[in-house]
Amino acid sequence: MSSFSISKPAFQPGDNLSLVNTFRWPDKTFRNEYRVSQGPIATGLEPWLALALLPAMVAGMDIKLEQPVSPRLLENLGKIQDIFYSWENKTFHRVGIEAAPYSQPVIPADGRAVATFFSSGVDSFYTLFRHYAEIDSLVYMKNPFISVTDDAIVTGRIRKVAHLVEKPVLEVLPLVRAYTEPYVTWYYMHGAAMASCALLLAPQLSKAYFASTHSYSGMAPAGSHPILDGLWSTEEVEIVNDGAEATRFQKIEYVSQFDVALQNMQVCVWDLPDTEKFNCGKCHKCLITQAALRIAGKLDQCPVFAEPLDLEKLAQGDYDTYYHRTNLLEMLEVLEERGSDPALANALAAALANQRPLAHFQTFLGVDPEVAGLRHQMAGLRQELNVYRTALRYQLADRVNNYLGRNKAVHRAGEILAHGMARIFK
Ligand SMILES: [Zn+2]
After folding, report:
1. Is 386 exposed, middle or buried (0-12, 13-18, 19+ CB in 10 A)?
2. Residues by chain with Cβ below 5 Å of ion ligand 1
3. Which of 16, 190, 302, 394 is the most exposed place for a label (fewest CB within 10 A)?
4. What does the pLDDT look like over 226-265, one tens digit per residue?
């Protein structure tokens, strides 16, 4: 098996908010960079190890670390690998990690903040409000793929919420997708990327909450996950997956009591660069959120959807993930129990009745970008399109984006193309 070494990162000359680490594989080189809005930032290897692991597992590359790292993290890397291997054993391979544990943490324990990663989504708001008194600050991990204009709009929204909830926000831009993209979908990578950002902020944070997407009652493989996130912790930073005790509907009902959530909730998969109505009102996440808000009696107080809830659209949707179907079923049960809103209950029942069987979770993952990898993907395309089309659509869109240019218009074009392909193969 090939291997590569991770050495100490370097600050951009004259800029102590931008840290660079180049990974040199035997046949290629990846320049990775993090930019933060406020220092200090950690110069240890832990953030880079969290970043390095999953693509290395896909490519089958052992990792060597050129300076000692957290013994706690080192000990848990085997378990992290076991989890990904059990989820996708055709894609992830166990790799060797050669490293020495440090004898004691570098950063003193006291005086650092408790933060929550925050995207202005339902899960984010839920964790923020549940731990409001404990949380000192928000961390916003920026999207490196959107245009400067869109980034300004999205970041502006986050800053506005931070101001309204009276918490400072730390912004981190991970310029790492040239390394991750060819190997691992962002669906799987984003948890490790968040962990990497949290560890990078170790001089400022002693604890970081990651808001859970899935509940304990509806777990499916995902890059940020209740069984996974805490394993990225070190002696310096405790990482905590939070909120899995609540279902999607329970979270929406809970956060809908806060006006700041109703006015600023960002749930749409399209992330519209509109300053006010930034949720399309048409995608599955929008429809499900609107339905939940209607049950909670708060839909008319939530002005962030570009279109009103369309029950016909809700009923006719093709919900191709376990997560979305669980959301629908849960809401139907709530309505049946409460005996309210028969029109919405009928739409939910119709939506559930319309679904085809779900296949095993194993998805169409990123592989090596070389021709062999693409050929492998094409061979599985027809089958996979029928297995997990949403993930595929985004995977294809990401890939088109990666090859053709890094701007949102191309990304959208890729998604539309992939969506069309999904229809053809249906
Ligand atoms: Zn939407």
Report:
1. middle
2. 268, 280, 283, 286
3. 16
4. 999 999 999 999 999 999 999 999 999 999 999 999 999 9
